Amino acid sequence: MGVSVPLLSKTLLLLLVWLVNFQSVQSLLRIDRSHFCNARTGKKVYEDHLCADLMDLLTVKGLHFERFKAESAPTFKDTGAVCTFSRLEASSGKDCCRGWAGVNCDIAVCEPSCQHGKCVDTGKSITAPPECQCDPLYKGKGCEEETSQLTEELRFCYAGGDCHGTILGGGVAMPITRCCEDLGGTTWGSQDQSHGCTPCSPGSPECILKDGVVESVASGGTATCMASGDIYRTLDGVVFKYHSVCAVGMLITDALRIYTVSRCDPVDRSTCSKDVIIEIEATTYTLTSTTLTVHDGSDSISFDISKLVHNRPTAVNNKGTVNLKYDALQETTSVSIEAFDVIVQVDADGTFILVVREDSPLKASVQGVCGNMDGDYADELALQTAVGAQKVFEKFKKDSIACGSSVQTCPPNLEDDANEACSALSTAFTECHKAVTINDYLERCRSYYCASMTAPGGGPQAAQKAVCNVLSSYNKVCTMITGTATMWRTPQLCPKNCPAPYVFTSRMRKCPIMCGLSPMSYTRSECYSSMRFSGCDCPLGMARLNDTCVAPTDCQCVADNGKFYSKGAAIVSGDHCQSCICGEYGLWQCTPSPDRCSATCSINQGRLVKTFDGKLYAIGNSCGTLQLAKSPEIDIQMETSTCTQSGNGVHVCPTFISVTYRGKTSTLDISVEGVSIVNGYSPNVYIRQVSRHIYVVDVRGGNARIFVNLDGTVHLKMKTSLYKNKLVGLCGNMDGNKDNDFTTYSQASVNGQAFLEVFTSCPTVTYTELSPVPMNPLCHVEDRRG
After folding, report:
1. Which of 10, 320, 635, 731 could form a disulfide with 601 if both were Cys (CB 3.0 to 4.6 A apart)?
2. In a domain, 185, yes or no
3. Could you tell me if 723 and 613 lie in one domain?
4. CA 186, 190, 191, 196 torsion: positive or negative?
5. Residue 423: closest CA among 392, 464, 461, 458
6. Is pLDDT at 13 greater than 60 in this prediction?
7. 389 and 461 assigned to the same domain
8. Where is each EGF-like domain found (predicted)?
9. Hey, which residues does 291 pair with through a beta bridge?
C-alpha cells in the first residue's frame, strides 16, 4: 500500500521542525556551557602639545605629562617648546574567562596542563576555571605526581616555588641533593602537604623572582613587610602562607616590639584585619580599626581615628616621637615611630604594612615574622614550608595578648553565590596570576562573603564589601611583587565611595593636581611613572585645596599658620622674614624683609659659636653651663659632654638644653642612654623629635626655636621683631652689628676672654677669634642701586 503525498509532506515537515528545534536546543546547551567574562583593556595614546599649555592639558583634558621633545628646548619659559603627553583609552567587552578558550569559550584549558588526567568543568560557576581530574595513583594541580614514588628520601623536583610549576627530572622522584645541586631545582617535595615542600638554596634571586615568589628589598631606601590575611611578605621579600589568629611578633628588637593579632569583623569592616600592639620601653600603643590607645603603665589615653584631621600627623606622646595619621580618602591609618625610622600602616581592606628605612638604627637587631632585614632572602626561605613557618610563629608568639578571631568556610547553600561574587579574582587580574596564585584568595573571598552574608546585621551589602576588600588585598600583594598596579575597580566593580566633592577614578595620577604646587612640579621624574592607581580624586579640571576641589585659577594660598588667602592678598611670613603675595595656582611670591627677619645662632658641640649677627669664635676647654641667650622673658642655656658611640652605633654628643620662659623651666636631656624631656608639652614650650637624629624645642609657636642634633650641633632661631637688641649671652645681642656682640648683663663691652668668663661656668675656658663671616644670609639684602 503506498503512502499518500500529503502524508509524506507532513512527515517531512515534522522532521524538519524537529531538526530545527534540535539545533536550537544544541545552541542553547552550547551557550549554557560558554564561559564568557567581562574584560577591560587599555591603550596608551601619545600626543604632542606646547609645553606652555601644561596646566590646561593636565586639568581640562586630563592628559599626563611624559617628557620634553628632544628637539625642543627643555624649559616651560620657551613658548615654542613642545612636550609629549599621554592619555589612556579604556575599553570593555566580553572575553573567555580564565581557563576557557574557543569561539564559544567552551573549551577547557587547564594550567598547568593535565599530564595524567583530563581537564574538566568543575560546575561551580560560569566564571570558575576548569581543573584537572587525575587518573588513579596521580595527584597534583597538573596530575604530574605519581604518588607511589614518594618516600622519605625520594620526592619531586620543581623549578618553581612552593612545589609548583615545571617538574624536573622527567617526573621521577629523586633525592634532594640531585634536585638542588645537579638539576638546579627551586623546591623539593610534593604538592601533597603531608610530604612537605623544602626550598633549595638558589644561586641568585632571579630564580625566585622568575616564579613570583620573592622580590628583592624595596628600593628608595626602605624595606617593606606585609600581612594580608594568611599571606605574609618579609622585609627581605620572601612571600609565604601561614594561618594564625593569635598575637605574633612582626618586628622584635630590644628597643621596639610590634605585634599583630587577627580580628574579624564581618559586618562593619567586612574583613579580617590586624590589630597592632607597639611596645616602646614601658609604653604600649594599641591600634585597632577605630582607636589608638596609649598605656604607660599608670594611665591610658585613647585617640578616636575618625575624628583626626585628614592627613595631618597627631603626636600621641609628649616627646613627639610617635605620630598618628589618618588618610580619609584612602581609609588608611598610619603610626610613624620617628626615633627608629619605622612606619606602621593598616588599610581598610585589612592589609598590614610595616616600612623600615634601610639606615634605621634597628637594622642590625631585627627579628620576627618580618624577617631579619639583612638583604639575604635565602635565610628566610624555610618560612615557605609549613614546619618552618610554624617554628617562627611559635618563637615570636605573645601569649599575654588574647587571640583574635577568624571566619568559617562557606556553607554549601551559599557556595554558588560566593563563587559568582568572587569571580573577578579570575577575570580582573590576569596579569597577576603568574606571580600570585589566586587559590588562597578565592578561598578567603568565599569565606568572607559567606561570613558577611550570614552574620547578624550583615547581608548582601556587607558581603559585597567583603569581596572588594579581598580584591584590594590581592592587588596590593600583586603590586608589591610585580611592581605593576592593576586598574581593577570600575563603576560596576567595587567603585570607591568618595566623600564629596571627590569622585572615584580608575586612572588616578601619581602626582594629583593640587593648589600650592607649581606647574613644573608635575614634570618631576617620579611623576613620569606609567603606573596608574584607582582612588578618590577631584573631578577633571579641578585641583585639590584643603580637602575640597576648586578650579586651578581659584586656588588660594595657605600660610604657615594654616589660614587661606585669595589671589593678590599680601602678608608677612610667619617667621617675619619675608613679605609675600598670593599668586597663581596658590603659590606665594615672596621677597626678603630684613626688618622682620628671624636670626640664627649656631653652636657646635659647645665649642664653636656663630652669633645671631655672624661673629664666629671658638671656646676652648668648654665645660659646665653655657648661657646662650637671655632676655627679661626667656633664658636659654646648654651643657655638653664628650661624644661617644651609642649601643645602636649612633654617634651621640650628650647635650642638655634648658629653656626658662616666663618663670617656667623646660628641659631636653640627650644622653647615650636615651632622651629625657621635662615640661615639654605645654602651651608655651613644645619639645618633640622630628627625625631620628633631631629634636626641636618650640617656644610660643616659633618665637624661639631650637634644633638639637644628636651630633651636638645646636641651632637657635629667634624672631628679630621680638628680641632684636634685647638679648645678652654667647649668641650676641642681635642688633645687626657683629662687632658689638660681646656685651655683659650691664651692656658693657668687653673682650672675648672676659665675655666667655661671664657667660660660661667653666674656670679654664679660653677664647679664640676665628675668620670674620658675612652677615646672617637669611636677613641680608643686596644693595642693587648700582
Report:
1. 731
2. yes
3. yes
4. negative
5. 464
6. no
7. no
8. 106-144
9. 304
Give the cell for residue 62. 586630563
User: How far is residue 750's CA from residue 758's CA, in Å, rounded to a whole number?
Assistant: 10
Cβ atoms 247, 256 nearer than 8 A: no
- Tell whether 334 and 232 lie within a shared domain: yes
Residues 134 and 249 in one domain: no
- Three-class secondary structure assignment of 437-501: CCHHHHHHHHHHHHHHHHCCCCCHHHHHHHHHHHHHHHHHHHHHHHCCCCCCCCCCCCCCCCCCC
Distance CA 585, CA 553 (A): 6
Of 52-66, 279-293, 693-707, give the lowest mean pLDDT range: 52-66
**453, 482, 511 - which closes a domain:** 482
Q: At 164, phi and psi to the nearest 5?
A: -135, 165
What pLDDT band is residue 258 in, cutting at 50, 70 and 90? very high
Name residue 583's beta-bridge partners. Answer: none
With cell 628608595, the residue in question is 220
Distance CA 597, CA 574 (A): 10
Closest by CA position to 712, among listed 657, 665, 660, 765: 657
Beta strand residue intervals within 662-750, DSSP E? 664-670, 675-678, 685-689, 694-699, 704-709, 713-719
Q: Which residue has the cell 551589602?
A: 461
Instruction: Identify whether residues 477 and 575 lie together within a single domain.
Output: no
Q: C-alpha cell of 717?
A: 632661631
- Per-residue model confidence (pLDDT) at position 596: 59
Q: Is the pLDDT score of 569 beyond 70?
A: yes
Going by C-alpha positions, the residue among 578, 643, 636 that lies closest to residue 612 is 636
Q: How many domains does the chain have?
A: 6
Q: Can you tell me the distance from the alpha carbon of 240 to that of 237, in angstroms, rounded to the nearest whole number? A: 10
Torsion from C-alpha of 747, 750, 753, 756, nearest 10 degrees: 0
The closest of 472, 479, 434, 528 to 218, measured between CA atoms, is: 479
C-alpha–C-alpha distance, residues 634 and 329, integer Å: 43
User: One-letter amino acid identity for 280?
Assistant: I
- In angstroms, rounded to a whole number, what is the distance separating the alpha carbons of residues 125 and 129? 9
What end-to-end distance do the CA atoms of the chain give, in Å? Answer: 131
From the list 589, 497, 585, the residue with the least C-alpha distance to 545 is 585
Measured distance CA(163)–CA(79) in Å, rounded: 60
Instruction: Tell me the backbone φ, ψ of residue 263, rounded to 5 degrees.
Output: -140, 120
Residue 182 maps to a domain: yes
Residue 141: domain span: 101-208
Contact 54, 83 (CB under 8 A): yes
Position 372 in a domain: yes
List CB contacts of 227: < 8 A, sequence separation 6 or more: 233, 250, 260, 274, 351, 352, 369
Q: Looking at 395, 426, 461, which one is the last position of a domain?
A: 395
Smallest CA-to-CA distance from 405 within 447, 441, 348 is with 447
> Do both 416 and 453 map to the same domain?
yes
DSSP class of residue 54? H
Nearest 5°: phi and psi at 420?
-65, -45
Structure-block grid coordinates of residue 201: 638554596
Residues 231 and 159 in one domain: no
In a domain, 161, yes or no: yes
The grid cell for 319 is 616627646
> Quick one: pLDDT at residue 206?
29
Single out the residue of 37, 42, 43, 41 nearest to residue 94, CA to CA. 37
Work out whether the CA dihedral 143, 147, 148, 153 comes out positive or negative: positive
Position 268 pLDDT exceeds 80: yes
Cell numbers found for residue 59: 586639568
C-alpha–C-alpha distance, residues 424 and 468, integer Å: 10
Whether residues 441 and 575 share a domain: the answer is no
Of 183, 180, 177, 181, give the one whose Cα is nearest residue 153: 177
Q: Give CA separation, 445 vs 349, 442, 450, 709, in Å.
A: 12, 5, 9, 50
CATH of the domain at 672: 3.40.1000
The DSSP result for 177-229, as a single string, is HIIIIIS--SEEE-SSTTT-EEE---SSTHHHHTTTSB-PPPSSSEEEEEEET
> Tens digits of per-residue pLDDT, 335-363?
999 888 899 999 988 999 999 988 788 88
